[in-house]
Write the structure tokens for this entry.
Amino acid sequence: MRKNIVAGNWKMNTTVPEGVELAKAVLEASAKVPAEVGLVIATPFTHLCPVAAVVAGTRVELSAENCADKEKGAYTGEVSAAMIKSAGCQYTILGHSERRQYYGETDEKLVEKTKLALANGLKVILCVGENLEEREAGKHFAVVEAQTKNVLSQFTAEDMASIVIAYEPVWAIGTGKTATADQAEEIHAYIRGLLKDMFGAKVADDTTILYGGSCKPSNAAELFAKSDIDGGLIGGASLKAEDFIGIALSF
Ligand code: PGA
């Protein structure tokens, strides 16, 4: 059966000392969260090693926010999947809408990044989601289907054991405008249906699908009560340990 996960995406926030303090606060507060709920924090690259030292050997898992689409070599400024793994990460986020929108992340690049992440023993949180224009034009199912299939068609049922999907409608990210639980559930169920067509019922049942976009302690319970919503990818609210853990207590 699939795992419930709450993952914090710190984005480009906090200095290293602030991040270490935040990780410590999350770790301390995590004692309240039932053991079966997965807790992941995704930090900037600079924070991975010191935060790994804080959470190593605990229930809190560590994630990067991105990784390179090349294995190694002359790619100035890039950080490889092997580096991320060696810094102590279990996960990397890939395909966040901010990377797609501002840094030209394409589905083709995401295939390469996902391959390298999996080859280096990292699990992937693959983000998909439509923007406002696409939703208003009624294209949200088609957009999410294309993003999901373009990447996952290059992977096997076995690979799916290391892939978590995050549905993040772009219009709900950082805007305070959450998708309603019904709107989110409708897409989550649709994604699970796609997984069933691609990989069979077992993979569809076993894959964790997170919701992201203005998720907070006050709305998490309603979202997580839906049968196809298995947790959240949390931006703004993950910067306060109390809010992040409050969300993790909402299952
Ligand atoms: P938000 O971000 O919770 O601040 O809306 C979610 C995300 O982008 O992962």
Q: What stands out?
A: The mean pLDDT is 97. Residues 185 and 249 are 20 Å apart (CA to CA). The first helix runs from residue 16 to 29.
